[in-house]
Amino acid sequence: MRRAALALIVASASLPALAASPAPCPTGLPEGVTCHRAQDANGAHVLIARPAQAHGGLVVHTYGGPRLAPIRPETTDEDIRRFSEFLAEGWSWVSTSRRRPGFGVAMGAEDTESARRLYVAAFGQPRVTIAHGQSWGANITVALIERHNAPGPDGRRPYDAALLTSGVLAGGTRAYDMRVDLRAAFQAICGTHPRPEEAQYTLTLGLPPGASMTRAEVLSQLTDCTGIGAPNRTEAQARAAADLVAATGIPEAAMPGHFAWATFTFRDIAQNLTGGRNAFGNAGVRYRGTSDDAGLNARIPRITPDPEAAALLAADADLTGRFDIPVLTLHGIRDAVAYVEHQSAFAATVEAAGNSARLVQVFVNEAAHSKMSSPLYPAALAALAEWAGGGARPDAAAVQARCEALSARFTGPCRIDPEFRPAPWDSRVNPR
Questions:
Q1: Where would I find the beta strands (DSSP E) of 333-420?
Q2: pLDDT by residue (tens digit) across 93-136?
Q3: How far apart are CA 221 and CA 218, in angstroms?
Q4: How far apart are CA 51 and CA 55, in angstroms?
């Protein structure tokens, strides 16, 4: 099954791209940047930006999510503004909206490679090409360099290195286990998603076919039961919130986002990847630390994954750790969206592949997910580019030094912690 899926990826990645045309740039970019836009052969919208003082390097950006809003030409405009430091440092940029919204790691890797090819067709081969994956985009970027980075006729690989920031890197079959626990624990504690009088379904399918709940309606269920997000709450609501935190490990402040993703992203995975079948489970999980562990474990819905659905998810989104280029990760220690323990899971995968020498992980004493301090990003990119060009393998101190040197140009502190090591994945997320 996996071999056939990869064959389809390779075949469709060879489709010709449509020519890029000059277009106005998104607002907020450095002065002198010029932009082009296009759609590739699969309908994905591609944005190219080139600074006036380009030095020949290209950043191939992959955004996070999965975003479920319809794709538009401006889908990645917010990303280029967020990471405009790369342009200010002379890096060109290409990004793709992807052909459709929603989950699909293999699809995302294919569409990202299509965007890179479109750039090369328009402007020629860059001096150095670095893939940048942010959040869930880091999962796509690792799949990209594992599956789409074979040397060409000239012996060069499409990508020279990869920068992964705030990455979701535990792999598709593990990365969402805390959300599985959230849906199950919420049903045991609150019993309202779905309500008893509504159609019942396997919770990890997200929503039943035909359901039309909005994000606001989903989050109102969380607030009604726990008081999260409300100005005041009852003792019962506070206890429900504390029990959800204990059962899932998700901090209260991050609970609404994870609750929405556990609804709408799970529905997207079921509808667009697994043929309506469930890929997730919690059958063997023992929940601890709540006000009534015995009662919770007796009541909690037990979910068993469909083997074929789990295999489809693994083929699409699990990682092997087998890549042939330098990879540098940058992650906030207190990130509550993509836990820093994603990095320990990824390091273990890379180590099992015998590839640890190609991985450097840098940890920052911040809680931000979508964007940490500005100088961190060009600093990490510069250190990675030097390593990819034959320089020394950087460490946290080297990235810190570069960050401090850039702090006069880009506002923000450089709070890299060279001594930090993340705990194992199963210490943060209930093992199963």
A1: 359-364
A2: 999 999 999 999 999 999 999 999 999 999 999 999 999 999 99
A3: 5
A4: 9
Nearest Cα neighbor of 159 from 257, 59, 251 is 59
For residue 321, give both structure tokens.
């750790």
Residue that has been written with the tokens 């402007």 in this structure: 123
Measured distance CA(103)–CA(67) in Å, rounded: 8
21-23 and 34-39 beta bridge pairing: antiparallel
**Residues in CB range of 252: below 8 A, 6 or more apart:** 228, 241, 245
Are the beta carbons of 48 and 39 closer than 8 angstroms?
no
The amino acid sitting at 417 is: D
Sheet holding 327-332, edge to edge: 21-23, 34-39, 45-50, 92-96, 57-62, 128-134, 161-165, 327-332, 359-364
Confidence band for 18, pLDDT divided at 50, 70 and 90: low
Task: Report the C-alpha gap between 317 and 319 in whole angstroms.
Answer: 7
294 in Cβ contact with 229 (< 8 Å): no
pTM: 0.94
Rg (CA), the chain: 22
**Within 10 A of 312 (CB to CB), how many other CB atoms are there?**
21
Residue 316 has pLDDT above 70, yes or no: yes
Could you give the angle at which helices 255-272 and 235-248 cross, rounded to 10 degrees?
Answer: 60
- Other beta carbons within 10 angstroms of residue 291's beta carbon come to 12
Contact by Cβ (8 Å): 333, 363: yes
Cα 416 from chain centroid? 21
C-alpha distances in Å from residue 15, one per residue of 9, 111, 126, 290: 10, 11, 21, 53
DSSP, collapsed to helix, strand or coil, labels residue 174 as coil
Q: What is the pLDDT of residues 340-374, one digit of tens each?
A: 999 999 999 999 999 999 999 999 999 999 999 99
DSSP-assigned letter for residue 203: G
> Is the distance from CB of 325 to CB of 149 less than 8 angstroms?
yes
Which residue pairs from 70-76 have beta carbons closer than 8 angstroms and sit at least 24 positions apart in sequence? 70/101, 71/43, 71/44, 71/45, 71/97, 71/98, 71/99, 71/100, 71/101, 72/45, 72/97, 73/37, 73/45, 73/47, 73/97, 74/26, 74/45, 75/45, 76/45, 76/47
Question: Which of 331, 337, 360, 357 shows the shortest CA–CA distance to 422?
Answer: 331
Residue type, 85: E
